[in-house]
Automatic annotation (TrEMBL):
Protein's UniProt name: Glyoxalase
A Pfam family hit: Glyoxalase
VOC domain residues: 6-125
Species of origin: Ornithinibacillus caprae
Cross-referenced PROSITE patterns: VOC
PANTHER family, sorted: PTHR39434, VOC DOMAIN-CONTAINING PROTEIN
Coiled-coil intervals, chain numbering: none
Length: 132
């Protein structure tokens, strides 16, 4: 189990810093640092660094094999994030849906797409034993 003294770190490409900052701040992420070649965010308690590298942006993104996001343990947090994404008119890659309906691993999910075509998944499992 994760201990509170650890922060997960993820580095991803971005094509332009200003639009990246706008997207992640609209999502509710706090800008922690900005340099000429990257921006660092508090992404729901973890660290996401967006490196300026337009040549590494996926031209036609697909959900698999590469995406990242948050699995919420509280449904209210999932609902709040979804409502916030709608209110801020963030671009959806996949609208909210239920996956594996009727199975133990059933969960609610939606995907956003950032300005560099990075895919972000947000989900909530009804059975928290299925989180891992």
């Amino acid at each position: 189990m994760r201990e509170t003294n650890k922060v997960f770190h993820l580095a991803i490409p971005c094509k332009e810093l200003d639009e990246t900052v706008t997207f992640y701040e609209k999502l509710g992420c706090r800008l922690a640092r900005r340099y000429d070649d990257r921006v660092t965010f508090d992404f729901f308690g973890d660290q996401v660094v967006c490196h300026l590298s337009p040549e590494n942006v996926d031209r036609e993104p697909t959900m698999y094999p590469r995406h990242f996001g948050v699995t919420f343990l509280e449904k209210e947090e999932y609902d709040q994030t979804l409502e916030y994404a709608i209110k801020e008119e963030l671009p959806f890659f996949k609208k909210p849906m239920v996956r594996f309906k009727g199975k133990q691993e059933e969960h609610m999910t939606f995907f956003l797409i950032d300005p560099a075509n990075n895919l972000l998944e947000f989900k909530y499992y009804h059975d928290t034993s299925m989180v891992y």
